[in-house]
User: Fold this.
Amino acid sequence: MHYKRVMVVGLGLIGGSIARVIRRRFGADVYVMGVDVDLASVQFALESGIVDEGSVSIGGMSVAPDVVWVCTPISVVAQTVVAVANAYPSVSVISDVASVKSAINVSREALGGVLYVPGHPMAGTEKSGILNSDADIVEGATYMLSLQSDVRYEGFRDMLVSLGFRVVEMDEATHDRVVAAVSHVPYVMACLTVGNAQSQPESLQELVGQLKSSGYRDTTRVAGSDPSWGVEVCVHNREAVMAQLVAVRDALTAVIGYVDASDEEALLAYLRGVCAYRVG
Ligand code: NAP
Assistant:
């Protein structure tokens, strides 16, 4: 590990979990600093040894970091990256973990030569906040990085590998399209499934509660995610999410037609194709 001082801005589920992985892997060899708008999160991080130094202010550290992770909500990532670069012009790399990439418009001119590397660890839970953070949530996860032609990028990528992440490099638009298919649209569909159960008559709700079992739980777990996260990914990844929701609507219309017509052959062909893709 060639970085000696790291900083995490946004001590929530992902920021706290990344700080914990660094601590687990490198112990006291790396000085970990943490920033959050919520003083209680900073205090918790300090008291539980997740960070060595904490502040509610980005510029409030006693030493400059070598590398910084911005783990804030998506809507404030770009401004936070710029604020970090202005506060610590000597920092090597600033990266982020936001679940969408194309919509984060960081002005490279405003960074004064600091390298910004868009990234996204493909891990998480439906919970939020540092109290729910855990190294196990992110350790060993696939980690999307936006490939850059810069030796500082290579240093950051190597550090992620040394932390146990499986780095996959791609451009932002590709990331957003694929993540819409495997995360954002599935979240919406899980919500629709819950909404369907919720819309059953009041007289049936007790039975709905009694009969829902592992299948319902498996397909709807992510519907318990923080709704503000759901709004953020749909709005900030609007283009990819919209295109795929329209495709899902078309597929649903076709399935409705098969069911309505009791077209067993067509329904079976569709379900077999989906099942083979899921299993295979
Ligand atoms: P979270 O648990 O709510 O953590 C975000 C933290 O950032 C909170 O402690 C929040 O404080 C703090 N914060 C808000 N504005 C800030 C600011 N301007 N400066 C410093 N700290 C600020 O959310 P999360 O799930 O960790 O998500 C954080 C990022 O990770 C998002 O960009 C998300 O897209 C990405 N991500 C999430 C997952 C997932 O499964 N959750 C997976 C991969 C990537 P308050 O709570 O007081 O506002």
